[in-house]
Amino acid sequence: MFSHLREDVQSVFKRDPAARNTWELLTCYPGIHAVLIHRLSHWLWQHGLKWPARFIGHLSRFLTGIEIHPGARIGRRFFIDHGMGVVIGETSEIGDDVTLYHGVTLGGASWQKEKRHPTLGNGVVVGAGAKVLGPLEIGDNAKIGSNAVVTRAVPANTTVVGNPARVIVRRDERAEETPEARAREAQAQELGFSAYALGNNGEDPVARAIHSLLDHASETDRRLSILIRELENSGVKCADESQPHDNFDPEYLGKIVD
Q1: Average pLDDT across the chain, whole number
Q2: pLDDT over 50 (residue 57)
Q3: Residue 175 CB neighbours (<10 A)
Q4: Alpha-carbon distance 3 to 19, whole Å?
C-alpha cells in the first residue's frame, strides 16, 4: 500500500502544477485520500468483509466528496483532480496512469448483477463532468472531453467530445496537425496526461462536416454560374424567370453552425 501511495504522490506532481510539496498533498488533496481509503476498502471487499468495506467507502464519500465502490478495480498512479462529485461504480475497472477530474461518473446502464460499468485502459484522461455509462471499453490513452456523455466504446489514442460523444481527434491524423500542435502533444505524452482531456482541435465533428458541405455547395454554385455565363455568351438562354431564385448564403449558414 505504501509503495502505491508513493507512486500516487509522484503522479500528482507530474499532473498538477499547483502541487507544491508532499505534506500538502497528503493533507489537502481529497483525490489522494479517496484512493488511499479505497485501497483499504477494496482489500476488505475482496476478503468477504462487505459491510465494513461499504461503511469505510461511505465515510470516504462523506470526507472527500468522492464515491468509489469498494468493488471497483483501480490501477497504479491513479489521480483524481479536485474530485468533488466523482462516482465510480462497483464493476468499474481502471488501468494505470488514469486521470479523472471533478464531476466524472463511471456509471452503469443496467440493473442486472453483471459487468455494467466501464473499463478504462492505461493513460486515459476523463474531463470534468463527463459521464461514461455502461460496460464500455475505453482504449489506452483515450481522452474524454469535459461534459461528454459516452455510451459507446472509445478506441485507443482517440479524443471524444459532446453528447453523445463523438470522435474529434485520432493519432493517425497527425499529418494534418501543425508543428505547434505536435509539440503540445509530445509534451502531454511526456507528462502522461492532457489537462481536462482537451484535444489539439476542439472543433465539433458535426460542425466540421456541415462546413465541408457548405464549402462544396458554394464551390458548385460558383462553377455553375461560370457555366451559365459561358452558355449565355454563346447565345444559349439559360435563365428561367418563372422560377424564383433561392437565397442560399453559405457564409450566413456557416456562422449559424459556428
Answers
A1: 81
A2: yes
A3: 6
A4: 20
Query: Could you list the residue range(s) of the whole structural domain that residue 8 is in?
Result: 2-199
Of 173, 199, 225, at which residue does a domain stop? Answer: 199
Note the pLDDT tens digit of each residue in 108-153: 888 888 899 999 999 999 999 999 999 999 999 999 999 999 999 9
Task: Write down the residue that cell numbers 457555366 correspond to.
Answer: 227
For the record, the C-alpha cell of 210 comes out as 456541415
E strand or H helix that includes residue 138: strand 137-138
Closest to 81 (Cα-Cα) out of 28, 125, 122, 31: 31
pLDDT in tens, 7-18: 888 888 888 888
> Rounded to whole angstroms, how far apart are CA atoms 7 and 78?
9
Check whether residue 10 and residue 102 sit in a common domain. yes
Cell 482504449 identifies what position? 139
When divided into structural domains, the chain yields a total of 2
CA atoms within 13 A on the CB side of 249: 6
